[in-house]
Amino acid sequence: MITPDEKERIAQELNKKFGAKDVKCPMCGNIHFIIADGYFNTFMQGDLRQTNLGGPSIPSIPVICNNCGFISMHALGILGLLPKQENTEKGGEYGK
Ligand SMILES: [Zn+2]
Q1: How many angstroms is it from 66 CA to the middle of ligand 1?
Q2: How far does residue 46's CA lie from ligand 1's centre (Å)?
Q3: Phi-psi region for residue 33, left (φ > 0), alpha (ψ -120 to 50) or beta?
Q4: Distance of CA 16 to CAs 8, 22, 49, 55, Å?
Q5: How remote is the CA of residue 36 from the centroid of ligand 1, in Å?
Q6: Residue 19 alpha carbon to ligand 1 centre in Å
Q7: pLDDT at 91
Q8: The predicted structure's pLDDT at residue 86
Q9: Of 10, 20, 45, 52, whose Cβ has the fewest other Cβ atoms within 10 Å?
Q10: pLDDT at residue 85 in the model
Q11: pLDDT of residue 73
């Protein structure tokens, strides 16, 4: 599970991206969010007729609206939070 220090770092990086802009839930307009206790690591799928486990993925952190439960996922690579060997160009392929 994510440590309090990791959550703090994630919150700092997200706040840098959001700046002074008021962030509201796109579904209900609430302004309070929770950083999940763990990461998502969604594997990329190249064929909709199959499900492949493993291969390229997008490690991300779920941020949850504490009113309606809407989940936004933020790519750790874009936030600069992946270990160096996994952090490739922005928008590029993540992990292996
Ligand atoms: Zn909401």
Answers
A1: 7
A2: 31
A3: beta
A4: 12, 13, 39, 31
A5: 15
A6: 20
A7: 46
A8: 53
A9: 20
A10: 67
A11: 96
